[in-house]
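User: Predict structure, ligand iron/sulfur cluster.
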Amino acid sequence: MSQLAPHNWGVLGYALFWGATLLAGGIFFRRIRQLVSYMLLGRKEESFRQVVSRAFSTLVIVLSQWCQLKNLTSRDRAAIGHAFMAWGFFTFSSFYFLFIIIGAGFGLSETLEDTKFFFYYAWVMDFLAVLVFTGASWGLIRRFIIRPARLKGEQTAEALVILLSVFFHPLTHLGKEATGIALGGTLTTLGNSPPPISAALSNLFTGSAASIEAASTAFFWTHWLTVLLVLVLIAYSRYLHMIASLFNIFFRSPLPVGVLRTINLETAESFGASKITDFTWKQILDLYSCVVCGNCQERCPATASGKPLNPKKVIQDLKRHLLEVAPELVKAKVSAPAATGGPGTPEAAPAAEPQYMAGTVVTEDEIWACTTCRACDNVCPIWVDHIDKIIDMRRNLVMERSQMPEPVQQALQCLATREHPWRGTTASRTDWTKGLGIKTLAEDSNIDIMYWVGCTAALEERNMKVAQATAKILQAAGIKFGILGMQEVCCGDPARRMGDEYQFQTLCQKNIETMKSYNIKKIVTTCPHCFNTLSHEYPQFGGNFEVVHHTQFILDLINSGRIKVGSLDGNKVVAYHDSCYLGRYNNIYQQPRKILKAIGGLKTVEMSRSKSNGFCCGGGGGHMWMEEEPAKRVNIKRTEQALETKAGLVATACPYCLAMFEDGLKTKGATEAVQAKDLSELVLQAMVTGK
Ligand code: SF4
Ligand code: SF4
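Assistant: Predicted complex:
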């Protein structure tokens, strides 16, 4: 007697089986076709390189569930529940294809079931059914009873139907297996020990053979109809991520993390994204992939500090907007006159114009609230890129509509006229070098390494001390270095993150030309923003240099014995703050901590949020020059987290972070008790006064 049993009802059973399966499959494929046509409204994007390595890494990420488990924390174990549900989904789906679609659908059930492979597969499914059931039960309890902050407002009917389908699915599977065993089905004859959980449950079925057979048929059909319901739900609900996320991970950007797309300023017809069709098809695929888990919302410093930005909401709002306007746009595209090149070609522009997004779909306040800290991108289980969409919308506001907050306009104006964003400064780029005997490359270009100072260390009073400390360390180590001095212009990061791609490219090309004229090979810099831009974004324009951050360089000097670092007096407790552009953008977490460890007399403590889960200082994405309501300042939140540690020192490795902490400590009235220092300052101090 088969345990996969549409044939229990003879021809009618098969007719019903195939009728229902084809109907659900038809609904599924029709909707997927529709969604693909919406996606192709987007601009082109090159993502087809390295197909084999992408396919391999996608399989590893998805099958291992690293996408979820990377976010596993001691406080939040939801990732484990999801991983069990996903492993269950993969195993059950393969089972359906093999044993039900091929087996039961073509009347081969008994042949297939009469194999050892089926027997072992049934064992695996037995345990997985319990794990999936447990995962779904936990999901229901968590979402509808515990309600963690990041899922607030997500207790929707859609979420309930999805979780109930996952809940009933393993139950009906076990019922089907248990009744099969009770009836003396294949699993009892193939081996001595049938799957233990189903076998135990089979003891519940003690009635007549006819009644158990009726129960078995009922379990089969409820199970199969649940499967078909899930198939339809995949196409019409957030379940879509089960398919979309696979492609989203496969097509993830090949660029280093956080690197923005370039715009070809000579050929581009428009700049950035004003309408949904200005996004690329991959950016639209991001919208389909979002599973509304709320991880990004939970980690976002803008959301945490009460700003209008919530990255999950931005993605959901864009998706909703796409689904609203896309049917008309596709219709218009299909009926576009042949003269435009016909449907499917880039020239076949839709006649129906989609609406502007900034101010309607996403507010301008949301667009400007982002610090580009990457906390959202980093934690997203399916590689949704939030920042590229926000920056594309900024690009459009700045480059096409000249619409931006006044401080942004002033910083950009300053960049255009003085080639740095520090509007109020009267200092020159070389004032900080007075008395240090530092030469510019124009004076002496025979160097081992160039020190890229960066606008903030060169021009902002507090940070000049960091430039001086770094230079003194290099001198003490006997490094032959030089600076560009007045020839250095802003690296362009503030302009690019504020949406002014034109200015970014102008500054970037000017710097590349200058550095190439001096045949520069290696650069050290104190600023993680400069470090990131010079390392990963200058190559987009032919600027290929070896760039190291001063924390990497100083650690090497310590390890190689070129500088001797002693102990600091006072047995101070120090908390290190991870700069987003050093940590999440460049994975530099250990070097700064190792430097602190090398300095004697310091006890290091971690803040509640650190390393890849670090909390932004609030200065990135142009926010260094923006004004914010005091109650909603990100740096105040971060300063509070630092004060919670009771550390007497906050160590940083970024000029923005240092300036933000100086301001935060002042606002909190904590400057007496806590000092903010760059690591170079601490190292220099330990070299001078250290014992
Ligand atoms: S980059 Fe940072 S500030 Fe911007 S949306 Fe993401 S988490 Fe929020
Ligand atoms: S964008 Fe990513 S992290 Fe944010 S809710 Fe969607 S799936 Fe979760």
